[in-house]
Specification:
alpha+beta; six-stranded antiparallel barrel
Length: 727
Amino acid sequence: MSDGTSVDVTGAIRLKAPPRKAPPRKVPLPPIRDELILFAAAPNEDGTPAWMIQDPVTNRFYRIGWIDFELLVHWADNDVASLVRSVNEQTPLNVTVDDVRQLSKFLADNQLLRLSTPADVAKALARAQGMKRSFFEWLLHNYLFFRLPLVRPQRWLAALQPWLARIHMPLVAGVIGLITLVGMYLVSRQWDVFTHTLVDNMTLTGMMGYAAAMLFAKTLHELGHALVATRYGVRVAHMGVAFLVLLPMLYTDTGESWRLKDSRQRLAIAAAGISVELALAGIATLVWTLAPDGAFRNGMFFLATTSWVLTLAINASPFMRFDGYFIASDLMDLPNLHERSSALARTWMRRSLLGFDEKWPEDFPLPKRRALIGFALFTWLYRLTVFIGIALLVYYFFFKLLGILLMALELVWFIGKPVMKELEVWKKRRAEISTPRRWWLAGIALLAVGVLVFPFSSRVSGYGWFHAQNQQLIHAPFAAQIVSVPTQRQFKTGEVLFVLESSMLSIAQDKSRQMAQARGSQIAGLLGLPDGEAQRQTLNSQKAYFEAEEKMSVDEQARLTLRAPFDGELHDVDHGLAPGVWVKPREPLAILVDRKAWVIEAYIAEADLDRVVVGQAVRARLLSDPMAWTGGHIEAIDVSRTLALPSPMLDASNGGPIATVTEAAREGKERSQVVRDALFRVRIALDEPLPTNQVSTVRVSIEGKTESIASSALRKMASVFIRESGF
């Protein structure tokens, strides 16, 4: 080993700056910072050795290859020519002056050189001044993401290692895997209950439960990272809370895992959090299936759902810098996967779209290069979706004015700024674009503008239900006892369907009759009395009151004889109905259907309401038969939005096509399902009946007014602005 290096007690190689000597005739190499650490890393994909440079000040790691390593080892007391000669003489490598210049530039760009002269200090100050952010940029970056360290857990993590070392992890993993499979099987047997529980918990109390479960799950998640990192000798500097767009999330600093030479150990650290959370989800799933109803079962449900969804949808995704990203980087042995794949994608766009003769940032085999370019393009699309979602969350979770400003910042900073930065590069190099390609690009731009402004979109889609034009739900007006049930299915208008009776009404009727008769007897006894006239008026008034009560009871008794309001056929008769059975008020007994005429009631979004009018042509089909379309036309359009669905088959919680939310119970009323979106009912008359004679869910397509994409977007933006202008 040369004089310019020394071995640290940990086994890593510590770089040492060259000793100060009298200036040689030739310009010496710039000195390297004393505190940098150089250690061996996992071999590169082609099998060549690799090393890592650690900057302990910034805790950043830089991967270098064999040539760079040998140049650093022979760096001391050499000028460029001597360094090249020493490396070529003492190693089988063939380095050049360009290799030294590239390494010097890399060290300078990453501030790994010592500031030994006033000129170096001046350059560093100029670089720092150029990188200095404005107050607006500082505020934006700290609003978007910042960390708050809370604990330094290294001491108690190390104390736990002897206890954890006694655990036979393969056996534990097998048992948890078996528990998870059993839990998933039992949940599949109760899937309706599971999904309904998810919908029913979309309340303020339910949201608090999900938040508490997420905090508990994420705490165990981060402990998994910390414990596995400590097991492999990686120092966990601190743990704390990171704020992403003011949304708190726990984090564990395992940045020093890059010191590990074995990629499998780094992979184990990256996957530890996901493994712990999946294990928690599996155990909670099984416990939920076995626990009785109550708070404990709800807690297990919260743990299971939050752990499954957040782990699989967020943490396991390689498209954001969460655990999935680091797992993918280790599996592919590609540190800085996002940056490197994005550089390839930008180069591909410049070469493909603009015809630039640009060199690829890195040399990869063609299949791998294509895979990385595709990964980068999908990552951009994924992040676009995520950032727009975050913008909407910011808009809805803050008061309106601040929400709009923060949403604009999100869209401009994350979407607009990268696009404009790339367009600036295209503008500076526009002279390299050939004339035929310019015409080709201009044609594409005109075509895109035409697609945006040409009013070709006319279809308005919606969901609804197909039912008889005349149908009536038969139910008891109030609590009563069944006297007789129908024995036939076909009924004419006015025929008796059900006969009910109420003993309370009979008692009330008898009481009113007796009280009226008593008042009549009292009136007859007043004949001939000197003051009888005044008493007679009072008694006549009371008699009239009780007679009215008796008549009301008679009328109510008549309402208990349920008759057919039109000609039709009786369906869905409750099989539990029989003489002597009591029924609740408004309890469905059956449904009377007139099968001669059928209609569709469809529901369209508020944004499409201005594009539909009475008389427009409509095509409809059953959801169960996507090929059988039937024509029709609009008969009527509601002027107010629909709050409650007319049939449970339309409710998404019952497998229907329209989403609903659970409305909180009010005083004297039970919880009910309310339509989530602003939908308006459209009544449609069919030219020909659909191929069924049963009530069914349908999809409709209306030939609405044509509208361009641009005008639709502007109209929606204007409506949002008008609606929220009051902030």
